[in-house]
Amino acid sequence: MNSVGEECQELKRRYDECFNKWFAEKFLKGQKDDPCQPLFKVYQDCVKKALKDKKLDIEQMEVQVMGTDNEKQPPS
Amino acid sequence: MRIWTSEHTFEHSWDTVVTAAWRKYPNPLNPSVVGLDVLDRSIDAEGKLKSHRLMSTSWGMPGWVAKLIGMQETAFASEHSVVDPKNKVFTLNSRNLTLSNVLTVNEQLVYCQHPTDPNKTLLKQEATVTVSGLPLCSKLEKMMTDAMNNNANKGRQAMEFVIDKVKKEARELTTEAHKCMDNVLPKTSSL
C-alpha cells in the first residue's frame, strides 16, 4: 500500500509491519504498551511534511462545512 | 440523511476479522484505493485504540480527463476508528474530504462479536449523504445505494480474501515451526 508521500514509503512499511504484529499478538491479548511508537513518530513526521508539501490541510478539510453557514448556496 | 444500511456475518472470530481489517488494503477488489496513511494513533484511558487515517483514492480516469474537468487525480477520505478489545467492538467512520463543500458521504462500519456465536463476527454498515442545498432526488439516491451495495460486497469479499491470506500465513508459520522442532528434537534427545 502506498503512502501519500513517496518518501515515506519505507517508513510506512516498517511501521505497518510493527503495528500489525503488535496488534494481533499483544494488543488483542490485553497488552497496551505500544513498542511501535518511535517508528510511528518518524513516519508521522514524514507524512505531515508530505501533506504540507502537497498543500493538503487535513484539519481545514475536516472542518464541518455541510449544514453550516460555510455551505455553498445555490446562486440566487 | 441515511440512505443505506446493511448487515453481514463473517464466519470468523472477531480477533481474526479485526486483525485482517487493518491489512485490508491493497486487495484486488478495491483497486481505486491507492494510498493509506495513519495520521494519528493512541490508546485512551479505557484501553481503546483510536486511529485516524487518510485514504487516497484514484477516480480511475486518465490523467488528461482529470485535467480537462479540473479534478485532482487523487481524492481523499478521512477515517476515524476505535478498537474496543474488552467488548470486542471495532467502529470505523469515514467520510470524503474531496468535494466535501458540495457533498458529504459518511460511512460507518461496526464489527462486533456475534451475539450468539463467539466464532462469528457481525458487521453493520450504514451510510448517510448530505448534498449541498439540494434534496437528494430518488434517481441519484438509487445510484448511490447501488454503488454502496456494490462496494460493500467488494469490501466483504476483500475481507474474506485478506482473512484467508492471514490464516494461510499462520498455517505456514506453524508448519515451519513443526519442521524446526522435528529437526531439533531428535538431536537434543541424544545429548
Record keyword descriptors for this entry:
heterodimer, A: 76 residues, 51% helix, B: 191 residues, alpha+beta, 3 helices, 7 strands, phosphatidic acid transfer activity (chain A), disulfide bond (chain A), MDM35_apoptosis (chain A), TP53-regulated inhibitor of apoptosis 1 (chain A), PRELI domain containing protein 3B (chain B)
Structure description:
The complex is a heterodimer of chains A (76) and B (191). The N and C termini of chain A lie far apart (45 Å). Chain A contains three helices and no strands. With 76 residues, chain A is mostly helical. By secondary structure, chain B is of the alpha+beta class. Helices cover 35% and strands 37% of the residues of chain B. Chain B contains three helices and seven strands. Chain B has helices at residues 14-22, 63-68, 138-189, and strands spanning 2-10, 33-43, 49-58, 74-84, 89-96, 103-113, 121-131. Chain B has a seven-stranded antiparallel beta sheet. In chain B, a hairpin with a 6-residue loop joins strand 5 (89-96) and strand 6 (103-113). The termini of chain B are far apart.
Low-confidence stretches of chain B: none
The biggest sheet of chain A, with number of strands, parallel, antiparallel or mixed sense and barrel status, is:
none
Radius of gyration of chain B: 21 Å
Total count of strands of chain B: 7
What class, by secondary structure content of chain A? Answer: mainly alpha
Helix and strand run of chain A: HHH
- Which secondary-structure class do the elements of chain B indicate? alpha+beta
Oligomer: heterodimer
Protein name (chain A): TP53-regulated inhibitor of apoptosis 1
Family (chain A): Belongs to the TRIAP1/MDM35 family.
Organism (chain A): Elysia marginata
GO molecular function (chain A): phosphatidic acid transfer activity
